[in-house]
Write a structure and sequence with these properties.
Layout (H helix, E strand, L loop, with lengths): L5 E5 L5 H16 L5 H10 L2 H9 L3 E7 L2 E10 L9 E8 L8 H15 L5 E6 L3 H9 L3 E10 L2 E10 L2
Parallel strand pairs: 4-5
Antiparallel strand pairs: 1-2, 2-3, 3-4, 5-7, 6-7
Helix pairs in contact: 1-2, 1-3
Length: 169
């Protein structure tokens, strides 16, 4: 019997290719039919291997979750960008390869990202999700998030509502 290990760690430049692949698969799965196709494809294509390698080198905090040595997902975290919200930390992105969704890895990565922000002295947490992304909304509610604010993102003149979830730790 083989035992697979699950590891959550800070991303390294060597992870850039795997993260780019996760990004492409996860974004297609999450946003096809929500974000207009041309815009979605352009957004995905902008974030290739070089983009991720630079993000990791620039000291952006990128975490990866590995299962059996394979990068199954990533999260990007930092200071809250929405000045009107009092929470200090933000998870900018949290995505898993589609085949790793629904088995608890996302919750593990979320908790690790939340803990990393707290370790850096950032009190409270905010996460934004598109209102049409029902899986994301259910995920954040299931992890204790409270829906407290709304905003709008515009893609090809299509306005999409986004929702802010917060945790006050």
């Amino acid at each position: 019997m083989n035992t697979l290990t699950i590891d959550i760690r800070k991303a390294e430049p060597r992870d850039a290719s795997a993260i780019a692949e996760v990004h492409q698969q996860a974004w297609r799965g999450a946003y096809s039919g929500i974000i207009p196709h041309r815009t979605l494809t352009s957004m995905i294509n902008r974030r290739g291997v070089d983009w991720w390698a630079n993000a990791i080198r620039r000291a952006a905090t990128v975490l990866v979750v590995e299962i059996g040595g394979t990068v199954a997902g990533y999260a990007t975290i930092g200071k809250n960008r929405a000045r009107e919200l009092r929470q200090q930390g933000e998870i900018y992105e949290l995505y898993l390869r589609p085949e790793y969704q629904g088995i608890g890895l996302g919750s593990r990565l979320f908790k690790a990202a939340k803990a990393r922000l707290a370790d850096h002295g950032l009190r409270g947490l905010v996460v934004w999700a598109l209102e049409d992304n029902q899986n994301a909304l259910a995920f954040y509610v299931g992890n204790g998030g409270r829906d407290i604010a709304e905003g709008v993102e515009v893609f090809e003149q299509k306005a999409l509502k986004k929702v802010a979830f917060v945790w006050n730790d």
